[in-house]
């Protein structure tokens, strides 16, 4: 890994639970030597990517990320365009909705909205990258990669985030087929135990996938009828989002049949998985 | 300059007029050799700080900056807090208002609002860093640095952005005294010809300066009465912004006297500058 990547990776150690990080903790969390980490932190701070709390000397994300984000939004206003759609979607389905953008082999969270209608709601971590193979957002996007890219990604060992993460390439290909048919992916407990989600791809020009919309629900509330309703809204909103961003939504997706309930790997058809020759 | 800084500086080449930059243009604009620039671009893209237009292969700012900005806003919601105040201020004074945050020896733009009530309005470039000595935002902040820091900054040659940029250390110290008295700075044509502005410091905990609010007006419209009115509103809004961010606003600022019109370096008292012994 290059010096630049090593430095930029330090920025990924921040999270909603870790607002400020001191030198010692950076060394511990990054498992790198103190002199190197200190040099990287100094350069990141010199460029405004970090700033130091004047009292504790601990580091936090700096104003440069705000300025660059504002510039990107001026040039390509994705957040501005997607935010109202994500809010609307979350209010219609009464659950946490989010949009994320492809960033190499992961999904980078962009906006989320929590309608706060239930006592128990999925908590969304804005700092956490979403893996392609273990989240409905990731798989919704992955399914529309060129086959050669999918082959390359499937050739690597797929991390089991939970007992139910699909890590077997042939089962993964079944999932991908399902996503290509309806433009939808449902997963239960695949990234985090107790969380189910439905994801739908967002496309740019030339039907190239650029991100995904998703709704995440506690698995205990993810009954088939509810999942079906969420899936239908996601199809609508993924198309809306694609059009709003100036992209082209594929004409090939089938309408959701009344008995659709995702793939055979989703929670509500779990019983079928164990049936031989199902 | 270190490798990391060299790579991060490439991100500063984007601007509202330059949304995408190809390799050749990066080489030309950065005046560095092609192999190095290419390696830096590749690492920045691998980490999501850049992404490539799939058609032209040109680079643009990537989704990582949006994610990190969203995280910083979750942890320290400055944009969310300052945006409504900046909008309100711009509507009250009918001119472009903006907030910026200190980033080392420059000000990093955070939010701006243009009430669009005049045919001619100051254009605000969200990508451009504001120098401390040549902008009212910068001087409003600089005036509250420790004296030793001010001495260090004054010891460097001060860039003349226009014929009217104050680059003489003793005149600069007069300006700083004025800012310390009222918590306000006015400048005319100091950063850009034809643009006047009034700036006011925003403070964090312990009255430490963290940023500035400012209003920018075409110099042709910056009559003394209007400047006075803007200055009064800025005093109010800088205090509001400081309180909203959890900071402490100094109690030492004097109320604006009716005849206040900035310092002797502002446009409306320009005549006095040429009066001997004025």
TrEMBL record, chains A, B:
SMART domains recorded: HTH_ICLR
Keyword Ribosomal protein listed: no
Keyword tags: DNA-binding, Transcription, Transcription regulation
Cross-referenced Gene3D superfamilies: 3.30.450.40, Winged helix-like DNA-binding domain superfamily/Winged helix DNA-binding domain (1.10.10.10)
Any one GO molecular-function label of the UniProt entry: DNA-binding transcription factor activity
UniProt cross-references to InterPro entries, sorted A to Z: GAF-like_dom_sf, HTH_MetabolicPath_Reg, Tscrpt_reg_IclR_C, Tscrpt_reg_IclR_N, WH-like_DNA-bd_sf, WH_DNA-bd_sf
Pfam families found in the cross-reference section: HTH_IclR (PF09339), IclR_C (PF01614)
Protein name, as recorded: IclR family transcriptional regulator
GO biological process: negative regulation of DNA-templated transcription
Record has Transcription regulation as a keyword: yes
């Amino acid at each position: 890994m290059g010096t630049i990547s090593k430095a930029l990776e330090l920025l990924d150690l921040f999270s909603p639970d870790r607002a400020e990080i001191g030198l010692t903790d950076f060394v511990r969390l990054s498992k790198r030597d103190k002199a190197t980490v200190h040099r990287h932190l100094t350069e990141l701070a010199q460029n405004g990517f970090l700033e130091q709390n004047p009292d504790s000397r601990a580091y936090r994300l700096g104003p440069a990320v705000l300025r660059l984000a504002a510039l990107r939004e001026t040039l390509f206003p994705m957040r501005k365009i997607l935010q109202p759609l994500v809010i609307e979607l979350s209010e219609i389905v009464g659950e946490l909705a989010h949009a994320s953008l492809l960033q190499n082999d992961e999904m980078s969270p962009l906006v989320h909205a929590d309608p706060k209608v239930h006592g128990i709601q999925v908590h969304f971590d804005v700092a956490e990258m979403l893996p392609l193979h273990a989240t409905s957002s990731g798989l919704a996007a992955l399914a529309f990669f060129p086959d050669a890219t999918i082959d390359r990604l499937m050739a690597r060992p797929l991390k089991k985030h939970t007992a139910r993460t699909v890590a077997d390439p042939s089962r993964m290909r079944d999932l991908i087929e399902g996503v290509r048919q309806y433009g939808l992916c449902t997963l239960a407990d695949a990234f985090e135990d107790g969380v189910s989600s439905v994801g739908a791809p967002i496309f740019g020009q030339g039907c190239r996938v650029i991100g995904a919309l998703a709704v995440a629900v506690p698995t205990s509330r993810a009954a088939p009828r509810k999942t079906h309703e969420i899936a239908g809204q996601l199809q609508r909103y993924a198309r809306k989002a694609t059009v709003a961003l100036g992209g082209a939504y594929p004409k090939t997706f089938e309408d959701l049949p009344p008995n659709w309930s995702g793939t055979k790997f989703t929670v509500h058809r779990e019983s079928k998985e164990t049936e031989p020759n199902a």
